[in-house]
Each structure stands twice: as structure tokens, then as C-alpha cells.
Amino acid sequence: MEGPGPRERMFKYTLEWFPSYLTNLPGSFARRQTAGLQHIIFLFVDHFEMRAIPPRLERWMEIFPQMCSRHRDSDGHPPKHTWFYPLDGLIESELVELRKLVDAGLGEIELHWHHDHDTSESFSRKLRDGLHIFQKHGFMKPVGNGKPGCFAFIHGNWSLDNSRGENYCGVNNEIELLVKAGCYADFTFPALFQKAQPPILNCIYYAREDGKPKSYKKGRIAKVGVPPAEDELMIFLGPLTINWTDWRFKWHPRIEDGDINGSCSHADPKRVDCWVKQRIGVLNRPEWIFVKVFCHGAQDHEAVLGDATDTMFTYLESKYNDGVNYKLHYVTSREAYNIVRAAEAGMTGDPGEYREFLIPNPLDGRQ
What we know:
By secondary structure, the protein is of the alpha/beta class. Helices cover about 30% and strands about 20% of the residues. Helix 5 runs parallel beside helix 6.
């Protein structure tokens, strides 16, 4: 018997999140009414898989610095990229080249990993060995807490915590193992039309391992005054919603998931405004708004490094950086994590002051 077709799968996995969307809809409208100066904290996470294809790396080395030179946020920073580089496709010469972009202040390297049919033991061994290689190049260094590394994570094929089965992971206690290894936050989601998508939407929350697949399907929302427990992993979500202002498909509105891809539609202000309107952040700190978008910037390098991205940055800076209603902050994933933790600790004012709040830049010599 044949399995469900693409349309049936899309419908089935939309049910992973659509009930939560309906439940939270009234509250999402209420959150948009916050008055006063709003800080837009923008992070660009990349499932970055070069796979030894030279033009992908060459274009990034050539085009990205040129693009960044044309843009600045309220703190004087250029756009910052977080390249989540795949452990399963690690080529050290690529890390050497990417280090040049990192040294120029244009982003940071974090961990991406496609793995399958692993056990807890094999997962931990491979991760430990991989971290050692990254650390040779200055990335993901430990921070003195006894853990082997310090890193953010994006799971390949969206399969965090064995949420799509052993063909894409195999480790039911992956959240526990990531925390023990020094992972400070997961940036995998959203995962539109995927079984892995959590039912929790448009927030930053903490998951705790329960020994079963997809432990992150439930969690505790990040809140001022409530620091994480030692066994909790931050799940940093990007936008997932229906954009009722975007009808480019004519007969239905667009589902917005923050994906920057070959369609180049991210130049459209309707998409940017929709990201901001989700008001992702820390409870009781509504003026700090996190906008996380994602891409596959090696495969889609022509789109991600093209005019649409340039236009997107220009729009962010023109509408969301006037200094009166909005201030814009370009951050890496690590800096975004630090700002979340600062909010939880009760810090106020300009979030740009808290980029180094807890976890220092691994290249600044303090680790």
C-alpha cells in the first residue's frame, strides 16, 4: 500500500501547529499594540552546506562583505550571519576561509549536523570528536563549565530529538546529550510541513528531555526573572504564521516561516513586517523583539547573496531603525542568546549592550 502523497503529508503536518496558531491568534493581535521604542533584534541563521562545491564558497567570500559594507544597524554593526556548518560534511579548508568572514565581524560559526541510526554513545562520541576539529579553528570553545564545547545547534533534516525517526537521527535523548555537550540553544525551527514541527509557535522556550522522541513538543516560555534550569535547552523559534497581507498565490494567503530561498520574495516589505509582528521574545520584556530568519545559503547562494537580500536590509534599516519608534540590532545566534538571558535576568534598556552578557565570543581570548 502506498503512503500518503505530498498534499496529504502537508495537511497532516500542518495539524502539528495550526491549532496552536488559532488558539494564540487573539493574543498575537494584542501583543502588536505595545507602545514606545521597540528594539528589533535580527538574526540570520543558515543551514550552510557547501559540500566542497567551489562556487558556493567563492560567492560568499566575494559578495557578502560587499553587501555588508552598505548596511549598518543602530549600534554601527553590519548584518551578521550565523553559518551553521555541517559536522557530517566538514572540510577544514572551508573553515579556514569562513574564518576570514568571522574575523571581519560578519558572523559566527555554529553546528549543523545530519546524522542517522545513532545511539546515545555513538552520537556523543562523534559530537566530541567533531567539536575538537571546530575548536582547532577557534569555534565552539568550552567556557570553563566542564562541558566539551559551547555551541548553538541546527539539526539536519529538521529531526531534533529523533522526531522523524532513526533514518534521520535515532537518539531519543538528544536534548539531554546536547546540553551535556555544551549546547546552549537550538535554532532548528520552524519546520513547515514536517513532522518535526513543534506545536509551540512564535516564541522562545525551554525544553527538557523526557526520554522519548520529540521531547521539545512541550516546554516553558522564556520569562523575565526565570533563568533556565541546568537540564533545560533553549528552543529559539522563528516566525510561523499565516500572512494575511500576502496573497501572491492568488487563491490563498501565504504561510510565513521566515525561509529565505530562491524565490527571492524576502525583498517584499509584507514579509518583513509579518516577521516583526509576531513579536517573538521574552515574556515581560515586550519591547525586545527577535526576528529570526533562515536559509540554505550554500545551495541558495545566488538568492541569499542577491539583490533581494540587499533590499531586505535596506527596508529593515529604513522602517525599523528610525531611533524614535524602532532601533535595529543585527546579531549572531550567540548574541541573540545572550540578549535573551539578559532579559531573563531583568536587564532593560538597549539590548545591544548585552551581546556578550554570558557567553563570550570564542575568538576574543577569554575562553
